[in-house]
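Technical note accompanying the year-one report. For the benefit of new consortium partners, we illustrate the data format agreed upon in the data management plan: each record pairs a sequence with a C-alpha cell string. No post-processing was applied to the example shown here.
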Amino acid sequence: RLLFLITFSFFFLCLCVCVCASEQQVYMYFRGSGKAAEMKREAA
C-alpha cells in the first residue's frame, strides 16, 4: 500500500511538471516567437 502511494505521488508530480512545461511552451509560442516558427513551417 505504501509503495502504491509513493508510485502515485511520483506519477502525479511528473504529470504536474509535464503540464507546467507544456503551458510554458504554449505561452512562449503565443508571445511572438511562435509566429516566426509558424511562417517557417508554412514555407517549408
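Partners are asked to follow this layout when depositing records. The mean pLDDT is 79.
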